[in-house]
Design a protein that fits this description.
Radius of gyration: 11 Å
Number of strands: 5
Order of helices and strands: EEEEE
Length: about 60
Amino acid sequence: KPSPDDEPFVKVGDEVKVGETVLLVEAMKTFNPIKAPNAGVVRKILVEDGQPVEFGEALLIVS
C-alpha cells in the first residue's frame, strides 16, 4: 500500500497483469515498486506489512 492509511495494492483473489505494481518494498528509506512478473490471480501473500524481507525472497504467489 502506498501509505499506512491506504488500501493494499492487491489482495488474495485479485487478478493482476504483467507489470502491474503489487507491492512496495522499502530500502534505505526509498520505496521501490514490485511489479507482477506474470499475469494471474493472487493466490497467497507471504509477507506482512512492515515485515523485513531478503533479496530474492518470495513475497506473494500469483498463478
